[in-house]
Amino acid sequence: MEVHMKTMKSIIYEKYGGPEVLQLMQSPIPEPGSGELLIKVNSSSVTAADWHLRKADPFMVRIANGFFKPKQTVLGQEFAGEVVKVGAGVTNYSAGDKVFGSTGMKTGAYAEYITVDENSVLGRSPKGIDQELLATVPIGAMTAQFFLSQGNLKSGSSVLVNGASGSVGSYAVQIAKAAGAHVTGICSTSNVEWVKEIGADTVIDYKTTDFTRSNQQYDIIFDTVGNLSFRKVRDHLTDEGHFISTAFNIGLMFGMMGNALRKGKKVFTGITKETKESLEEVTDMIRKGVLRPVIDRSYSMEEIQEAHRYVESGRKKGNVLLTIHKEGSYERS
């Protein structure tokens, strides 16, 4: 199987800034090296991580990705597509395989083709779901899975998910429910019903109710938004409860340091460990029908600036899909 074209469309940003720095341009189609796959990208996603990288916000982004201008000029950390060519030594995949996965900080999925190592965070696409939607699964689902595991999630746990209508939050609701937990979600008024539909037993509308004013306690409080603190929620944790948060900040780091000195209630924050094994666990949940992506909006490559503006506004629910290739839109032999 061989790609006949020599160039592809890529969304490139050569300087940090607003959505207007994202430009649709032609670039060479990469060649897979030893142990690599060339993948035709059918779809990617637009996430909060993408706009933070684009904007260099927070400032530490510049330390990792270039102080004055980005080293990695193509964003996109999630993809779904098809293997079109394999490099020397590849044993696990063949041309024609449908796959999905995460590029991690390598990024690059805002392009019609991408090369990835066959041992990277990559898996075969499960059947029974629209293949295009799989591009919105890896990061959100693996993040929810990783953090909930740090909270000692088990059957019978009572779990509160703050930000239940977001990408990580919507996956957290489903993963916790599949584990046999009693799940309470916090979201805005307009999202209450669909958060119930994806599995929440109870939903709190934060616009009308402040859960910290109640006497309810939870085994796990999972903050996917970053607007809670251990001090604020500790009275709402059970004796052995865990406060877990995706907000990686100084206060939470000090909270974790205190775990060794503190009996009972614990704090956890950190960076998600993305692995092939965790992606396979997520894939298995999709196969079983207990996990599905929630899609808010879908954009084309030509609409990337609009897509970034929308995601940066903080109004999205679930995930935003970026369509790259339509099925069968490339030549092969």
TrEMBL record:
Residues of the Enoyl reductase (ER) domain: 17-322
Q: Which Pfam families match?
A: ADH_N (PF08240), ADH_zinc_N_2 (PF13602)
Q: Which SMART domains match?
A: PKS_ER
Molecular function (Gene Ontology), one example: oxidoreductase activity
Its domain of life?
Bacteria
Task: Report what the protein is called.
Answer: NADPH2:quinone reductase
Q: Which organism is it from?
A: Gracilimonas mengyeensis
Q: Mind giving the lineage of the organism this protein is from?
A: Bacteria, Pseudomonadati, Balneolota, Balneolia, Balneolales
